[in-house]
Amino acid sequence: MVSERMLGLGTARSVIRELFEYGKQRAAVVGAENIFDFSLGNPSVPAPQAVNETAIRILQEQPELIHCYTSAQGDAGARQRFADSLNRRFGCSYTADNFYITVGAAASLCCVFNGLSCPGDEFVVFAPYFPEYKVFIEGAGAKMVLIPPEIQDFQIDFEAFERSVTPQTKGVVVNSPNNPSGVVYSRQTLERLAAILTAKSGEYGHPIYLISDEPYREIVFQGFEVPWIPHIYRDTIVCYSFSKSLSLPGERLGYVLVPGQVTDASQVYAAIAGAGRSLGYVNAPSLFQQVTSLCCDMTSDLSVYERNCKLLVTALREMGYHVAQPGGAFYLFPRSLEPDDVAFSERAKKEFDLLLVPGSGFGAPGHVRIAYCVQTEMIERALPRFAALAASYK
Ligand code: PLP
Q1: d(CA 257, CA 275)
Q2: Phi and psi of 325, rounded to 5°?
Q3: Which pLDDT score, from 0 to 100, does residue 62 have?
Q4: Are the beta carbons of 186 and 223 closer than 8 angstroms?
């Protein structure tokens, strides 16, 4: 006998992985240059050279120190450098004690959901959403309450939101810039969200935490602003990752930030640390605690994402696709040209060798996700395929 829930998770088909595997097999038949894989959110630009140089320098200068255990919550010096960086950028006064270093945003989210959840608790999530939220929230014994997408611009359907916040609501998750839509929540959207949460927290007599999942915080395009959410809503807990900003998804490094202003901050921090302990998410990789904290004021050259975005959005709109305006990240989420997004994705794959992920898995049927973290030249070659796909529906 094994856990039925875990067996289900371990054997479930991942649509994204299946598309990716299909792409590799198909490339062997038609040639890699004839398959257009937009399935995976793997950064397409290398980490800054300084990241590699820093890693090498640390390994050469401190070999006896770097492979050791750190504190469970991460090295104090690394946590203080994360604090100093945010204090410089956003005018805050965080200290090392506000940070719990983890193996990426995925682990940060798991620590937060597990640390906060009491029996019967609910977390509100806005569609379209990163599908792992459901796995993480349910893994913490809580319930995910999904708000349907506001499909015009993927901001927030506030009427549906207000109806869904109940005395059971422990937290609300936001992810801006967003995977899969690329949309950035405006300051106005966030202020309205904060006002509702403040009122509801008062009405129900307990804090409702805003969990800001920010792996794409630094990938933001000209004309868009990603406000620092703890300045807008007091009870904000930040989950961050260096997977995308420094192109280090395989190194597994991120953090949870619990600002001191958060209601019951020291209890919340201790519960998150307890969750880290219970899940085995202690002592994130020590070399990359040092490397990321020494390089956290820099990013990879992210400019290619904005170039790719412009190229695709302009071309797709000319072809008749409806695309909500992205402000960051490296995803587009156009409407599928038939209501059944799975059938649309299947046609794109089978007839045009375009690998697009159906939107149903992100809670937004009738759309597909295009991960454009690929070479610009591949996008240019893919455009006639997108045009032919659109023409096939006329
Ligand atoms: N949250 C969102 C919205 C993501 O897109 C991802 C990864 O793609 C994660 C969290 C997990 O990131 P990490 O690699 O830091 O675990």
Answers
A1: 14
A2: -70, 115
A3: 85
A4: no
* 293 close to 86: Cβ distance less than 8 angstroms: no
Q: Could you say which of 278, 294, 310 is where a domain stops?
A: 294
Q: Any idea what the CATH number is for the domain that residue 70 is in?
A: 3.40.640.10
10 Å CB burial of residue 385 (0-12, 13-18, 19+) is: middle
Q: Which residues line ligand 1 (CB under 6 A)?
A: 41, 104-106, 130, 175, 179, 213, 215, 241, 243, 249, 254
Atom of ligand 1 lying closest to residue 329 CA: 5
Query: 282 and 308: one domain?
Result: no
Give the pLDDT of residue 293: 98
Running DSSP on this structure, what letter comes out for residue 335?
B
pLDDT in the model for residue 195: 98
- 313 shares a domain with 241: no
Q: Which domain holds residue 178?
A: 66-294
Query: Measuring CA to CA, how many Å separate 41 from each of 84, 121, 130, 196?
Result: 29, 31, 11, 33
Amino acid present at 107: A
DSSP of 94-150: --GGGEEEESHHHHHHHHHHHHH--TT-EEEEESS--THHHHHHHHTT-EEEEEPP-
From CA 213, how far away is CA 208, in angstroms rounded? Answer: 16
Q: What pLDDT shows up at residue 17?
A: 85
Phi-psi category of residue 182: left, alpha or beta, with phi > 0 → left and psi -120 to 50 → alpha: left
Domain co-membership, 226 together with 362: no
Query: With 0-12 CB in 10 A as exposed, 13-18 as middle and 19+ as buried, what is 389?
Result: buried
Alpha-carbon gap, residue 244 to 52, rounded angstroms = 16
pLDDT of residue 226: 97
Distance of CA 343 to the CA centre of its chain: 26
Answer whether residue 137 is part of any domain.
yes
Torsion of CA 6, 243, 209, 114, to 10 degrees: 30
Q: Identify which of 40, 108, 132, 211 to mutate to test ligand 1's pocket (most ligand atoms within 8 A of the CB).
A: 132
Sheet holding 122-126, edge to edge: 99-102, 254-257, 236-241, 209-213, 169-174, 122-126, 143-147
Q: What is the mean pLDDT of each run of 10 residues along the chain (394 residues)?
A: 95 87 93 94 96 96 88 98 98 98 98 98 98 97 97 94 98 98 97 98 98 98 97 98 98 98 98 98 97 98 97 98 97 98 97 97 97 97 98 95
Specify if 209 maps to a domain: yes
Ligand 1 centre distance from Cα of residue 106 (Å) = 6
